[in-house]
Amino acid sequence: MKAESVVRMTGVGGVENLELVDLPPEPLPPGMVRIRHAAIGVNFIDIYHRTGLYPLPLPATPGVEGAGIVEALGDGVCGHSIGDRVAYAGAPVGAYATARAIPASRLVKLPDEIPFRNAAASMLKGLTAHMLLTRTWPVKAGDTLLVHGAAGGLGSVLVRWAKHLGARVIGTAGSPQKARIARGYGVDHVIVGRDADLVAEVADLTGGIGADYTIDGIGGGMVLKSLACTRRFGMVASIGQAAGPIPALPVEEIGPARSLSFARPSVMAYAADQAAYGAATEALLKVMLLGISAEIGREYPLTEAGQAQADLEAGRTTGSLLLLP
Fold it and tell me: Which distant-in-sequence residues (6+ apart) come within 8 Å of 98 by Cβ?
């Protein structure tokens, strides 16, 4: 079989540690399937792997979601056939490749109505949204959510899904352009700019009460602001650190005065739970058929994986980013 193009991470640090190499196809052990990618999602966790925040044994191939066609089956695989349209998210890492071997249990069959690009852009973010909206805090009609980075790839799914559940959504955006994009997703109110008085604006929008539920993928110093924006007995979910490491958080910042719940949920842990993965992907496909999916912000050839990560890391993008083999 001909060699496959694979992005390898040879060291920890900048995007210069990513290189495109040609490798022979991986062996296909029992229970594994080879998928030929049509599209591959780019996510912040890929950057965390590259920078060593979540270390991988080196050399490694990044990437935790993709979509494509089944082209070979290992022994013992049931429920999948060559030619199936499939998508996946979660471990094992290794999506930045023209084709890869992956456990059959990871694969989700795609309805014909869902394009590969939409699936590759939405799988991990959709699982994250399902975790946040049903497990971390079961969102119900009338809840007020504060969603940071509402114009991003996760924001595009979170906002639409939360609105589908009947929630009111306050979003943050770093620029007027990103605010316009967030409004297009259905955000009720957008707080614009990194220098905005976030706490005061949320208080004004909620009659001084605060948001019921705040979803913070920014990290850094934003976490303390998120706590201050959330009502008593509300919930703050910290799901990322695009702005840098999260500082040590004294328990006194959460309660008893604020009486808050604080969560640090991991979508990779959620996806590793096979029962949760099955339920979440089933729910995701249903809402995708209703039009709730990640917005595709930009597409890159696989050869420009480093540029895609650099653009995402620098905040130059909106929506979800894709690599196309």
Answer: 4, 5, 6, 36, 37, 302, 325
Contact 261, 230 (CB under 8 A): no
Whether the model clears a pTM of 0.85, i.e. scores above it, the answer is yes
How far, in Å, CA of 127 to CA of 104, rounded? 18
pLDDT in tens, 164-212: 999 999 999 999 999 999 999 999 999 998 889 999 999 999 999 999 9
Dihedral angle computed from the Cα positions of residues 71, 75, 78 and 80, in that order, rounded to the nearest 10 degrees: 0
Return the sign of the alpha-carbon dihedral for residues 242, 243, 246, 249.
negative
Residue type, 66: G
pLDDT for res 125: 96
List of domains in the chain? 4-110+295-324 (3.90.180.10), 125-265 (3.40.50.720)
Distance CA 151, CA 34 (A): 34
